[in-house]
Amino acid sequence: CRHLAFTDCGYWTTWLGGLCHWTGTRDYNPKQMAIREKVFNTIISCFKRHGAENIDTPVFELKETLTGKYGEDSKLIYDLKDQGGELLSLRYDLTVPFARYLAMNKVTNIKRYHIAKVYRRDNPAMTRGRYREFYQCDFDIAGQYDPMIPDAECLKIVHEILSELELGDFRIKVNDRRILDGMFAVCGVPDDKFRTICSTVDKLDKMSWEDVRSEMVKEKGLSEEAADQIGQYVSLQGGMDLAERLLQDAKMSQSKQACAGLTDMKQLFSYLQLFQVTDKVVFDLSLARGLDYYTGVIYEAILTQTGPVPVAAAQNGAGEKAEEGVSVGSVAGGGRYDGLVGMFDPKGRKVPCVGVSIGIERVFSIMEQKAEASAEKVRTTETQVMVASAQKNLLEERLRLTAELWNAGIKAEVMYKKNPKLLSQLQHCEDSGIPLVAILGEQELKDGVVKLRTVHSREEIDVSRAKLVEEIKRRTLDV
């Protein structure tokens, strides 16, 4: 989260390469924004392809709206200073505000996407794309439908987005909170410890089993026997075959809750086969996702490779050793939360929901690294043509032609000098990646033509003024 008025400290640390290491926020230069816009467009295009509508909600909510929804992560919520009115907090994610939106507006059926900033008082890790202020890109399906059909579509969307962005190899882990709770029950975990043990299991992607087991036993007070039994299950991975095997398991079959989850998991994998995405999806019993509001299927997408050292890592100001490779980890996550909307409805009416959130900041970190490593130039504008002059005293003619092009919907630029040198104008096009130059001179004005120059090949042709717009459009179709 951007500290601004929310920090207890009145000082800011030095900004390095657009990153403030202490505050966990960053500025974005035009090149970074161009890459970011491309990523957003890919994601939004996918959401729209699946029929989603767009909504927006306030950046802050009543504190009571957010309290008690995030388990042990509730301590990461940013509270706004009490100014004698309602107690407010910055939103932690987009899911809880969406549930509140459904309840307040009495919406029982919607497929929506929402892209906006969220805020967390987390320890920033710039090398892993983790910030305190960051965007989330959410897709959710709300409504009463047959089991696992919407859930399968959410996983298909994750598969499509990560494939289209070409981030590298990835894997989507799936589990079910009912399977987890059933597993905890048959392993001897007391009911009142389910959520806190779940939060500890959720750390298995960051900690070894030995450390997780130690936290369960020494900090959470779980018996060693129960912890060891949990250890046997959370090491299991597979697909539909694992769900079938667990349905026959002597212990798991004793839990109706677990059996319901396992039956749905089999159904989910049958739909994923039809969607042709099972090559990337694995049923993983160690996946827990510590948020309290999940009630059914949960999933998380992780990148399974490391990339080059990000610029931010090499330039960090905290004296940290830059890593040789960066493991970005989770890039998407979500699940089913059938009870959340009912918490905000006066009559407790539930609206079943399932959704996914794309970790856009982590995706952006990888895309930025790839751009740095590539020799390909990133364009920061969409200008199609530069209106230039080869001689002096032609400012009015350049402005007149530029206005004609703007009025025709052409993206055009003109240099803000009365008598710029032609070489300076051409150099600006080279530097900015502008593909065409429309050059005016005394002879061109007399003949009613414009000299149209292709920047990269330096080829020039005379085009009649009447056909200039058509020719520019034809030559910049792919720009």
From TrEMBL:
It is an enzyme of class 6 (ligase). CDD domains: HisRS-like_core, HisRS_anticodon. Signal peptide: none annotated. Pfam families: HGTP_anticodon, tRNA-synt_His. Keywords: Aminoacyl-tRNA synthetase, ATP-binding, Ligase, Nucleotide-binding, Protein biosynthesis. GO terms for cellular component: cytosol; mitochondrion. InterPro entries: aa-tRNA-synth_II (IPR006195), aa-tRNA-synth_II/BPL/LPL (IPR045864), Anticodon-bd (IPR004154), Anticodon-bd_dom_sf (IPR036621), His-tRNA-ligase (IPR015807), HisRS-like_core (IPR041715), HisRS/HisZ (IPR004516), HisRS_anticodon (IPR033656). It catalyses: tRNA(His) + L-histidine + ATP = L-histidyl-tRNA(His) + AMP + diphosphate + H(+). Its EC number is 6.1.1.21. Residues 24-367 form the Aminoacyl-transfer RNA synthetases class-II family profile domain. L-histidine binds at residues 93-95, 120, 136, 140, 289, 293-294. GO terms for molecular function: ATP binding; histidine-tRNA ligase activity; identical protein binding; RNA binding. GO terms for biological process: histidyl-tRNA aminoacylation; mitochondrial translation. It comes from the Eukaryota. Belongs to the class-II aminoacyl-tRNA synthetase family. This is histidine--tRNA ligase.
